[in-house]
Write a structure and sequence with these properties.
Layout (H helix, E strand, L loop, with lengths): L3 H8 L4 H14 L2 E9 L14 E4 L3 H7 L9 H8 L2 E4 L1 H9 L4 H12 L5 E6 L7 E8 L5 H26 L13 H11 L4 H8 L3 H15 L4 H10 L9
Antiparallel strand pairs: 1-2, 1-5, 3-4, 4-5
Length: 251
C-alpha cells in the first residue's frame, strides 16, 4: 500500500528533475531500475512529431538511448505501437505472443533483438489516457537484471495498482512542471515578451511596458522563435505554454 508520504513527495516536487529522481528511486524498490517516459503533443496518423519536441525522461544508459531514441528505433518498438493504440498497463509477455504468432514485423524484431542485447528483456508499459488525439504519454518500466517476465508479472499481481497509480501521478505532475528541451532554453526577457504577447499586447504595448524599443521587442521575439524552432510568434506562445515555460510564477 502506498504511504501518504510517498504521494506528497511526488506532489511537492518543485522541478521535473526532482520529481524524476524521486520516482526512479521509488520504482527501483519495486524491481524496475530503468525507466523511459515520453510525451508528445504533436502526434499525427503517421508520426509522433519531432523527437526534439518530446518530453523525454530516462535513466537508461547513453549507449541505449543513442540508438533507441537517437537512431529512431523507438518508432518501430512493439510496445510503443501498443501504447499508441491502448490505454492502461501491459505486460511485456505480449512480445512473446507477438513473436510466436508471427504478427511482429521485421523492424519490430530488430528492436526486440536490440533490447535483448541491452538487457531490456522484462517489464511493463503504461499508456496514459488523453483527451486529445494529438497527445500521448507512456512509460516503459524495465525490470532489473535477473528478473524474468514471470517474476515481473508476479510483482505486478501484488503491486500493479500502486505502481500504476504512482506512474499516473508522475505523468500528471510532469504536465504541470516547466520542461525545457535541450538547447531550447528561453532567456528571461524572451519569457517576458512571450508572456505579454500571450496576454494580447502589441509590440508597441510591450515596448512601453518594458521600457524598450519596438525593434528590441521584435529581436527578442525572433530569438524566442528560433530557440523554440517555430515560424510564428503565435506558435512560440503556444509551444512555450505547452512546456510551462511562460505564465509561471518563477522563471
Amino acid at each position: 500500500m502506498i504511504a501518504s508520504e510517498d504521494l506528497l513527495e511526488l506532489l511537492n516536487a518543485s522541478s521535473i528533475e526532482e520529481l524524476w529522481d524521486r520516482h526512479t528511486r521509488r520504482m527501483r524498490d519495486y524491481g524496475f531500475d530503468r525507466l523511459i517516459y515520453g510525451y508528445t503533443r504533436y502526434r499525427t496518423s503517421t508520426s509522433l512529431g519531432d523527437p526534439e519536441d518530446f518530453v523525454l525522461l530516462t535513466n537508461h544508459t547513453k549507449e541505449y538511448t543513442d540508438v533507441f531514441i537517437g537512431d529512431g528505433l523507438y518508432f518501430h518498438a512493439p510496445m510503443v505501437r501498443w501504447a499508441l493504440d491502448n490505454d492502461g498497463a501491459c505486460s511485456w509477455s505480449v512480445l512473446r505472443d507477438m513473436a510466436d504468432t508471427g504478427v511482429m514485423t521485421a523492424q519490430e524484431r530488430k528492436v526486440l533483438e536490440f533490447n535483448i542485447l541491452q538487457g531490456v528483456v522484462a517489464g511493463y508499459s503504461i499508456s496514459f489516457g488523453s483527451i486529445s488525439a494529438r497527445s500521448k504519454g507512456a512509460i516503459a518500466l524495465t525490470a532489473r537484471s535477473g528478473l524474468s517476465q514471470e517474476d515481473v508479472d508476479d510483482i505486478w499481481a501484488e503491486h500493479g495498482e500502486d505502481i500504476t497509480l504512482l506512474n499516473t501521478l508522475v505523468h500528471l505532475r510532469i504536465l504541470t512542471l516547466p520542461y525545457t528541451a535541450p538547447g531550447r532554453t528561453l532567456t528571461k526577457r524572451q519569457h517576458e515578451v512571450l508572456d505579454w504577447v500571450g496576454d494580447g499586447k502589441t509590440i508597441q504595448d510591450i515596448a512601453i511596458l518594458l521600457e524598450l524599443t519596438p525593434a528590441t521587442i521584435e529581436k527578442h521575439l525572433r530569438l524566442a522563435r528560433e530557440s523554440l524552432c517555430v515560424e510564428t510568434t503565435a506558435q512560440a506562445v503556444l509551444k512555450a505554454a505547452f512546456q510551462n515555460q511562460i505564465f509561471i510564477i518563477d522563471h
